[in-house]
Write a structure and sequence with these properties.
The structure holds two protein chains of two kinds. By secondary structure, chain A is an alpha+beta fold. Chain A has four domains: about 1-85 and about 600-630, no CATH class; about 85-225, von Willebrand factor, type A domain (Rossmann fold, 3-Layer(aba) Sandwich); about 230-325, Immunoglobulins (Immunoglobulin-like); about 330-495, Rossmann fold (3-Layer(aba) Sandwich), CATH 3.40.50.880. Chain A is about 20% helix and about 35% strand. Chain A contains twelve helices and 36 strands. In chain A, the strands form eight sheets. In chain A, strands 20-19-21-22-27-26-25-23-24 form a nine-stranded mixed β-sheet. In chain A, strand 25 (about 440-445) and strand 26 (about 450-455) form a beta hairpin. Chain B is about 35% helix and about 20% strand. The radius of gyration of chain B is 22 Å and the shape is elongated. Chain B folds into two domains: about 10-30 and about 80-290, von Willebrand factor, type A domain (Rossmann fold, 3-Layer(aba) Sandwich); about 45-75, no CATH class. In chain B, the strands form three sheets. A six-stranded mixed β-sheet of chain B has the order 5-4-3-6-7-10, with helices on both faces. In chain B, strands 1-2 form a two-stranded antiparallel sheet. Chain B has a two-stranded antiparallel ribbon with strand order 8-9. The longest helix of chain B has 24 residues, at about 240-265. By secondary structure, chain B is of the alpha/beta class. The chains are: A alpha+beta, B alpha/beta. The interface between A and B is large, with 36 and 52 residues. Strand 2 of chain A pairs parallel with strand 8 of chain B, so a sheet runs across the interface.
Chain lengths: ~650, ~290
């Protein structure tokens, strides 16, 4: 006799806890007999002070015994008490079927996955019919495909539907998971059978799980020569924003050097309209990395494809696509009678496309940014705007006063538009001093108040109380920097720096700049849903289990990861020498163990039902509790009363 | 499936020799023994009147019809008789301990009704708790008994006892004095003594039948008890032992003595019965002994 689901210790612990709770409830709730009586008047006469230290008594011991017995029966049913010996009962086996990306490699006319499926099926058929089997698919994460199933057809169907994934094998996690489910199930543990190539990610010898003693290794032979793309990085040149610098890392997983051609092309999505962008011939040494770099000039968006030829038995890592974002331009409309004053400061910024118009040509619906030079339009612009020395009547921010020959006091270091601005002492011949709202930014000030004010919101507004080119500031280096800062503050997306990377699915690590705050970091998938990430010591880590694009926004930088390459192995696992390595032949077993749990469950439920009927609350409230019925015969003759 | 009758035929046959008795003489009423409603000797001719559709043809003066070819109806002067009224307690306290008191009281009421029907007496039965329930009129001979028994069986107990308001309503409803049979446990938190005295002072003759369950008089429980009043819902927690039980029974008996004294003092009768007693022993023993029936 033995338990299938619980150990004896677990059973005793659970039953002990339930019994304690039940007895406590009896002592607390049922120790005082509840009784409905005709009247309380005679009871009041008979009342006596309650004894303070009176011991609790269980008033309905048979009810308690019946409850405990019923609970014990139900618990035995849950524990699956069985007659017979555990040695003759079935065992619980776990088949770990490797579904890493590498299993898609071809070996001869078939793939490694098909070979692994075939071996798993043969192992399944060799197991005794009483045994239960769980199938676990293992790549970067171990995923159970079935529960412990006695039905072989279900497990076989799960084996047949197993396909290679996109990540590499994490063997330690798969073995730990298999051991865990075997110990949790409570039955007799069978074997853990690993079926696959055994090529795994780099294992940490300290953290690597100890090899289980019940391990059986059914390795699939994989004499595959493979070379493939490992990593691709792209960024815009610091000197030329239209120039992309491309770095490509390749790896030869084989045992022989290989001559390959690395080619890139660019164009819209799809096969048509693509333009070759460069190619290089490489000789890849065996088991080593090789890098190549390209440059490609474009400001438009598109798809960059990287192709490694000739293809080999594992073509999935010979090809990658990266999505390049467009280089956006900021349209600026300048309304001025003296456009030559502003032309130098605007032409210094390459991502600005400026158009100069007379104030008489003003249109309120201009897009992008509108600069109004000493001019009040009949209707305010709907787009973001910079107002330079506006007349006091009509200024978007009220003018408090006008001062002359006033020394410039300084910049607000906390405002992003003042970043990096330094000026020597200079005087403003004439400037308007504004009366800003509490939410407005005070970029530059004289003694009487702010002379450069920014108003956040939509649209954004910046007002300068003086013309920088016509004032004492015209010889300062801060003048073009101030305009550059204002443009960045108004349209930060125009100045965002892009980095594009191609790589494999799995864990991605990114070292961020020092000035990026953690709260400004966002990681999203290509459909816009957020992806969990961690930041530790400026290093951002996230995991993507499926191929696709991931965007990381960190301050003024944006990283675009095209994770389309499969994650490949780092090392070949050598199974322990004492592990079984062949399809087993199990001796036939006798069907000696039998299930008792249905009968135990029925008996337990019947016991609880009987307890409820005989001693339940409704019976006590109705006032015909069992003890009363038993004592009814003790009646008192009338003569006694008279 | 039809439910079992309150009383079986064998027991009813035993009741046929009994008569309900009262002792008082009521002014203007015939008393001291039973009078038949249809006996000719006791009814005197009063007058004739014109026959109307629906009148009893047996009272038609056929001689006058033969002579005058018109229908005339003979009118008799009915002798006033002592009214017998029965009050049956239907409060929640009667339902305590499984409703045994209420069942017993209904059977007792049915037995007395049958005794009255056999002697062609009319008995008006009311249930009560804080108010009187609609009247059940028991009259017309023994063949009317099944209807009376069904009406008694259909009564359900509910509500708290309030003797004072019930007696006020009773006196307001019935101005003629007579015999009042009260079958009850007489457990009213406000006390029933004053109300019963009021009834007696009004001129009614009281026959009090107190019904109690064994648990009412001698509670079988010991230990820590949490009690709840069946009528008011009030609670009481106490420790109960043999000494407390003796005090309880003593208090109960004292209360019964008060009820008995009240009945005897006003010329009435009192019988205390336990629901564990057989109905036969109560009818032929206790009630005969107190001369409630003979």
């Amino acid at each position: 006799m033995y338990f299938l689901n619980l150990s004896l210790l677990q059973f005793l612990a659970v039953f002990g806890s339930l019994s304690a709770i039940s007895v406590a409830i009896y002592l607390l709730d049922r120790s005082r007999r509840k009784q409905i009586v005709s009247t309380l008047r005679f009871w009041v006469a008979a009342e006596q002070p309650a004894v303070a230290a009176r011991r609790k008594h269980i008033q309905q011991p048979w009810s308690l015994i019946l409850q405990l017995l019923s609970m014990a029966l139900l618990l035995l049913a849950i524990a699956q008490l069985r007659l017979g010996t555990p040695a003759r009962a079935g065992r619980d086996h776990v088949i770990i079927l490797e579904t890493s990306a590498w299993m898609a490699a071809r070996s001869g006319k078939t793939t490694l996955m098909e070979l692994a499926r075939d071996r798993a099926r043969r192992y399944l058929h060799a197991l005794p019919s009483r045994d239960r089997v769980m199938l676990v698919r293992a790549d970067a994460m171990a995923t159970p495909a079935t529960a412990f199933e006695p039905d072989r057809r279900k497990v076989e169907t799960a084996i047949q539907s197993s396909e290679p994934g996109a990540t590499a094998l994490n063997l330690d996690q798969a073995l730990a998971f298999a051991r865990h489910v075997q110990s949790q199930e409570g039955g007799r543990a069978g074997e853990i059978a690993f079926v696959g190539s055994g090529r795994t990610i780099e294992r940490d010898p300290e953290n690597a799980a100890a090899t289980p003693r019940n391990l059986r290794v059914l390795l699939v032979s994989d004499p595959v020569e493979n070379a493939g793309l490992r990593k691709i990085g792209m960024r815009r040149s610091a000197t030329d924003p239209d120039l992309w610098e491309i770095y490509i890392s390749t790896h030869n997983y084989g045992t022989r050097p290989r001559d390959v051609t690395l080619a890139i092309d660019f164009g819209p999505p799809g096969a048509n309209g693509r333009i070759p962008a460069g190619s290089q011939h490489l000789t890849l040494p065996a088991g080593a990395d090789k890098e190549a770099s390209f440059e490609y000039r474009t400001s438009s968006a598109g798809i960059l494809r990287v192709n490694l030829t000739p293809h080999d038995a594992f073509p999935a890592d010979d090809y990658a696509e990266l999505e390049l974002p467009a280089q956006p331009m900021l349209p600026v409309t300048v309304y001025s009678n003296e456009p030559e004053l502003l032309r130098p400061v605007l032409s210094a910024t390459p991502r600005v496309a400026a158009v100069y118009r007379k104030p008489a040509e003003y249109k309120a619906g201009d897009k992008g940014l509108v600069i109004l030079d000493r001019f009040i339009p009949p209707q305010p612009p709907t787009a973001d705007s910079i107002w330079i020395d506006p007349p006091a009547k009509g200024s978007p921010i009220p003018v408090r006063t006008v001062v002359e020959n006033e020394a410039f006091q300084g910049w607000d270091a906390g405002h992003p538009a003042s970043a990096g601005l330094r000026t020597k002492d200079f005087k403003l011949e004439r400037t308007s001093v504004f009366d800003p709202a509490p939410t407005d930014g005070r970029i530059g000030e004289v003694m009487q108040g702010p002379v450069i004010v920014s108003r956040p919101g939509k649209p954004k507004i910046v007002v300068l109380g003086f013309h920088p080119v016509l004032s004492g500031m015209r010889y300062e280096l801060a003048t073009p920097l101030l305009f550059a800062n204002l443009l960045r503050w108004i349209s930060p997306e125009i100045f965002r720096r892009w980095e594009v990377a191609g790589g494999s699915v799995g864990t991605v690590k990114l070292v961020m700049d020092q000035d990026v705050a953690e709260k400004d970091v966002k990681v999203t998938t290509q459909d816009g849903s957020p992806l969990p990430f961690t930041i530790h010591d400026r290093a951002l880590n996230f995991f993507s289990g499926t191929p696709g694009s991931v965007r990381v926004a960190a301050g003024d930088r944006e990283y675009l990861y095209s994770l389309t390459l499969p994650q490949l192995w780092d090392a070949k696992w050598e199974p322990p020498a004492d592990a079984q390595k062949t399809i087993p032949k199990f001796p036939p077993v006798f069907e000696s163990a039998s299930d008792l749990w249905p009968w135990l469950a029925v008996a337990g439920a019947a016991g609880l039902l009987a307890e409820w009927i005989l001693f339940g609350r409704f019976r006590r409230i109705a006032g015909i509790s069992r003890p009363v019925l038993l004592r009814r015969k003790a009646t008192v003759p009338l003569e006694v009363r008279r | 499936m039809a439910s079992a009758p309150l009383l079986d035929r064998e027991f009813l046959e035993k009741l046929e020799r009994l008569t309900i008795h009262w002792q008082k003489s009521f002014a203007g009423l015939v008393g001291g023994h039973n009078m038949s409603r249809f006996a000719g000797a006791g009814q005197e001719f009063l007058d004739h009147r014109n026959f109307h559709h629906g009148d009893d043809l047996r009272a038609v003066n056929w001689r006058a019809f033969l002579r005058l070819e018109k229908l005339f109806l003979k009118m008799f002067q009915v002798e006033p008789r002592v009214p017998v009224r029965m009050l049956l307690d239907m409060s929640d306290s009667m339902m305590a301990y499984g409703g045994q008191k209420f069942d017993y009281a209904r059977k007792l009421a049915a037995s007395l009704c049958y005794v009255g029907l056999v002697r062609l007496d009319s008995i008006e039965v009311h249930g009560f708790s804080s108010r009187l329930s609609p009247r059940i009129f028991s009259t017309g001979g023994r063949h009317r008994f099944p209807g009376v028994m069904d009406s008694l069986k259909a009564l359900t107990a509910a509500g708290a006892t309030d003797y004072l308001s019930m007696v006020r309503e009773f006196i307001g409803t019935y101005s003629h004095r007579g015999l009042v049979i009260i079958i009850s446990d007489f457990l009213d938190d406000n006390g029933c003594e004053r109300a019963l005295q009021y009834l007696s002072d009004f001129g009614h003759e009281l026959m009090l039948v107190q019904v109690w369950a064994d648990e009412d008089r001698t509670p079988p429980w010991t230990g820590e008890l949490e009690l709840r009043d069946a009528e008011t819902g009030a609670g009481l927690k106490l420790d109960f032992d043999d000494a407390a039980r003796e005090r309880y029974t003593r208090a109960f008996d004292e209360y019964c003595s008060i009820i008995q004294t009240l009945a005897m003092r006003s010329g009435g009768r009192y019988a205390g019965v336990a629901s564990s007693q057989t109905l036969e022993s109560v009818i032929f023993g206790d009630l005969v002994r107190v001369k409630g029936i003979a």
